[in-house]
Amino acid sequence: MTKVKLWISDIDGTIMNYDGSYTIRMKNLIDKINASDKKIVFATGRMYMAAQFALDEFNIKTPVVCYQGAVVRTKDKILWQSLIENNKAIEIYKYLRTLKIHTHLYNDGKLYVENDDKRIMSEYCDNRGTFYEVVNRFEDVQLNAVEKILCVIEDNETMQKTKEDLIKKYGDILTIVQSSKKYLEINNKNATKGEALKFLKKYWNLNDDEIIASGDQDNDVEMLKQAGIRISVNKNSEKLYNIANYHCKSVDSDELVDLVEKFML
After folding, report:
1. Rounded mean pLDDT for each run of 10 residues along the chain, 265 residues in total
2. Which of 166, 188, 210 lies at the terminal end of a domain, its last residue?
3. Quick one: pLDDT at residue 180?
4. Domains of the chain: total
5. Nearest CA to 139 among 118, 99, 169, 112?
6. In degrees, to the nearest 5, what angle opens at C-alpha 123 toward C-alphas 81 and 248?
7. Does 140 share its domain with 218?
8. Among residues 162, 188, 214, which one ends one of the domains?
9. Contact between residue 187 and residue 69 where contact means Cβ atoms under 8 Å apart
């Protein structure tokens, strides 16, 4: 009997491709875990609404880590959260507005945008089951619980400069991490997938050696650090690749399936 009790994994680029496709073996693996006494948890930058598709697709009943680690919740209950303070959120979106950065504001389970760029929003919402509300200005939104702010930046040079500027300006109080080539995530300093996993370890009384963690981007680094078995998929993040003790070429290679079967089942 293996001692691994929990597999926590990023979704996009790890469990499934960014277009929402996945392999038959991955589906079968997750079905086996669901039928066992082991646990699988999805940890994603997606909002809960957008994660619901994947939860339903794989029949996941455990809590989900969403908003980059800002919230751990079930369908009906928030178990843990770490939010951006309202005044800091206002300061950030005003600053991003001066840079003309396409910005998403996540507040109390809803997604708001000022610029309804149909191309960007259609691409972002595809395969995510995501709805959004267009506002004239973010100041029109009543801030109750700011889970995340996201920047959509399609030029790599602008991405790196914006990331560096934000880290220099807010790095001591916020987590600023790139989750894909064009998405830059801004959260509370304690809102990481790693902090969320720390909560789940206490919640289920688990230690590092009982956990497999898998991901594909910089935003998965802190999560992998909390696990005994650390798996990177693709080589999208040099940081993640360097701390992982196992590496998989792609979602379609099923190498992740092979590793989880070996260590968990």
Report:
1. 88 93 97 97 93 93 96 95 96 95 96 95 81 96 96 96 95 91 94 97 97 96 97 94 97 98 95
2. 188
3. 86
4. 2
5. 112
6. 70
7. no
8. 188
9. yes
Q: In Å, what is the CA distance from 17 to each residue of 123, 169, 252? A: 14, 33, 8
- Whole-prediction pTM: 0.90
Domain span at residue 171 reads 86-188
* Distance (Å, whole) CA 153 – CA 180: 10
Long-range CB contact pairs, 25-32, < 8 A, 24+ = 25/254, 25/257, 26/251, 26/254, 26/256, 26/257, 27/58, 29/257, 29/260, 29/261, 29/265, 30/58, 30/59, 30/60, 31/58, 31/59, 32/265
200-231 b/e with 16+ CB inside 10 Å = b? bbeeeebeeebbbbbbbbbbbbbbbebbebbb
- Which sign does the torsion angle of CA 207, 208, 211, 214 carry? positive
Output the CA angle 55-82-86, nearest 5 degrees: 115
How high is the mean pLDDT of the chain? 95
Residue 112 lies in a domain: yes
